[in-house]
Each structure stands twice: as C-alpha cells, then as structure tokens.
C-alpha cells in the first residue's frame, strides 16, 4: 500500500514570507557590535551601506536599522535560529564590556539564549530544531504582546483579510499566524500595560496582493500606497466589529516586488584571522 501523507502539512498560505523587522537606532557602532560581532549576523554588503541605515542579514531574513530619531523597541520579541549556541554565548561575552553602558544583556534560559540589544529589543536565539523545520540560520517567528482579549479578533483579521489559516491557542492565549516557510507571527495576550507604539514595522510578501488590499481599503486601513508592488497599513482590527486591537505597521509586498527572492549574503562567524580555514568564509547551512 502506498504511504499516506498529511498533504496539508506542506501548505503555504497567502503570506509567503516574513522578510524583515525594522527598528530605528542612534549608533551604528553599537549595532555592529551587537548584531554583527555578538550575534554573528552579516551586514548586507550591497544595500544601505552608509551611515543612514544598515541592513543585517540572517539567513533569508533581515533586521533593518535606520539611524534616526529615538531608538525603537518592538513590543514583544524576535525569535532567531543560529547554528551554534555555545559559539553565540562566547561572542556575546566578547562584546559585553564594550556594550556595558547600554541595555545589552544575555542569559541562557529554557533552551535558548535570551539577548537584549543596546536599546532594549528582546531577541531570543535557538539552536536548529524540529519546530523550526530545516532552518539553520534565520528568523522563524516574531512574537508581539497584545492586550487581553485581542487574540481571537487578530486571528480573524489575518484569516479574513490575508487568507491564512490563523488560529487561536487558548491555553497559550495567543493568535498564531502562518507567515511563510517555517515562519509564524505570534500575538500573545497580556494583562500588563503596553508601552505606546513607536513606529517599528515588519515586512511581508504575499501571493494574493490585491485581495488583502481590497480588504484593507474596505476597513479604511491603508496608510501608504508606496508603489505598484507595495503598500502599508498599521492598525489591526476585528473584522466582525471594526474594533482596533493592535498597532503594527506592515510593509506589504507583492511577489513582483524587485526585492522578492533577493539572495542575502551570510558569513561564517567562526572564521577568524588566527584560525582561518580556506573555503569556509560563507555560511552554507541554509539553501
């Protein structure tokens, strides 16, 4: 008898990928020490190479760090996968002194390394594991902290507006939104007070570009008609009653966007001058 497979396990919904998280900074030197030297990621060598912005590659995803204004802090945390947690801890320990006057910290807990960037962003690093598929370096999830009672409406928003199989995990008090291959967005409820939204954003690619646009127009949510292949919105609402649930700017891109599928350069952070091995400069764990 032929093998029986769960064919739904390989489904990809309308959100094809969560590409980047954008938070402003005020000092590229500190960002380099944390994201490049400490975390071991790679500054994009082709785009935003001046002092006005920096793009940080990790696998197929990025952090965008514009240098302007008051530094922004995501209301939640970003989950990242790195190939070696022990090497990560050594690198983070190596930058501790230079980042001593900032909010930087790191600690190992519950199977991951919890890090705080110089401005207070929470980034949690995991080793490759089954829950993240075959990802060896990348950004498998972004978790946002939302008000109590918001999860169900947020799940409806993405299901009706973006055509994804979003769901609510009642025990975890969270909405889970599929966001591409081995990626999700998580909106977890809290009883705590949320800080005011400061303008940070995420970028997603979607296959059905016009359908969500019509949904957002219907609800009066479009904030920017950027170009033929991109638009933006900020407010997440309950489609059943229009109630505003959360603020998070989304940079929404079509699959015709010129940057869709752009290859990202990723270095091997284990390469150092004193221990250099020819032919191993690039990270090759994710194809």
Which labels suit this protein?
287 residues, alpha+beta, eight-stranded mixed beta sheet, 15% helix, 33% strand
Quickly count the domains: 1
**What does the average pLDDT come to?**
95
Radius of gyration, in Å, reads 19 Å
CATH homologous superfamily (4th level) name:
2,3-Dihydroxybiphenyl 1,2-Dioxygenase, domain 1
What fraction, in percent, of the residue positions are helical? 10-25%
Query: Which class best fits the helix and strand makeup?
Result: alpha+beta
Please report the distance between the alpha carbons of the first and last residues: 33 Å
Please give the number of β-strands. Answer: 16
The quaternary state of the protein chains shown equals: single chain
Q: Biggest sheet, open or closed, and with what strands and sense?
A: 8 strands, mixed
Instruction: Report strand %.
Output: 25-35%
* Large-scale geometry: globular
Query: Which residues sit in consecutive blocks of at least 5 with pLDDT less than 50?
Result: none
What is the CATH class name? Answer: Alpha Beta
CATH architectural designation: Roll
Summary of the model, kept short:
This protein is of the alpha+beta class and 287 residues long. The protein has helices at residues 28-38, 85-95, 151-162, 210-218; strands at residues 15-22, 42-43, 55-58, 61-64, 76-81, 105-109, 112-116, 122-126, 138-147, 167-169, 174-178, 184-190, 201-206, 222-227, 230-237, 244-254.
Description:
By secondary structure, the chain is of the alpha+beta class. The chain has a single domain, classed as 2,3-Dihydroxybiphenyl 1,2-Dioxygenase, domain 1, CATH 3.10.180. The chain is built from four helices and 16 strands. The strands form two sheets. An eight-stranded mixed sheet has the order 2-3-4-1-13-16-15-14. The protein has an eight-stranded mixed sheet with strand order 6-7-8-5-9-12-11-10, covered by helices on one side. Helix 1 (28-38) packs antiparallel against helix 2. It is globular.
């Amino acid at each position: 008898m032929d093998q029986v497979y769960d064919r739904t396990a390989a489904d990809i919904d309308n959100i094809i990928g969560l590409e980047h998280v954008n938070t402003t900074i005020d000092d590229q030197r500190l960002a380099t020490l944390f994201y490049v030297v400490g975390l071991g990621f790679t500054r994009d060598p082709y785009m935003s190479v001046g002092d006005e912005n920096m793009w940080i590659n990790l696998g197929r995803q990025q952090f965008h760090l514009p240098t302007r204004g008051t530094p922004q802090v995501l209301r939640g945390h970003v989950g990242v996968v790195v190939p070696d947690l022990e090497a990560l801890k050594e690198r983070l320990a190596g930058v501790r002194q230079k980042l001593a006057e900032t909010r930087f910290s790191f600690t190992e807990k519950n199977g991951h390394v919890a890090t705080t960037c110089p401005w207070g962003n929470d980034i949690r690093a995991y080793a490759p594991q089954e829950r993240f598929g075959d990802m060896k370096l990348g950004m498998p999830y972004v978790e946002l902290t939302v008000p109590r009672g918001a999860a169900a409406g947020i799940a409806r928003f993405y299901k009706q507006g973006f055509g994804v199989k979003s769901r609510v995990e009642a025990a975890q008090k969270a909405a889970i939104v599929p966001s591409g291959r081995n990626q999700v967005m998580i909106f977890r409820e809290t009883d705590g007070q949320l800080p005011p939204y400061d303008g940070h954003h995420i970028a997603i690619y979607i296959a059905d570009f016009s359908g969500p646009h019509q949904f957002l127009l219907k609800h009066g949510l479009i904030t920017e008609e950027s170009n033929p292949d991109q638009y933006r919105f900020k407010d997440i609402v309950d489609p059943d009653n229009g109630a505003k649930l959360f603020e998070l700017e989304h940079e929404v891109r079509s699959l015709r966007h010129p940057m869709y599928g752009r290859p990202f350069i990723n270095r091997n952070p284990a390469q150092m001058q004193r221990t250099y091995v020819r032919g191993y400069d690039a990270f090759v764990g994710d194809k």
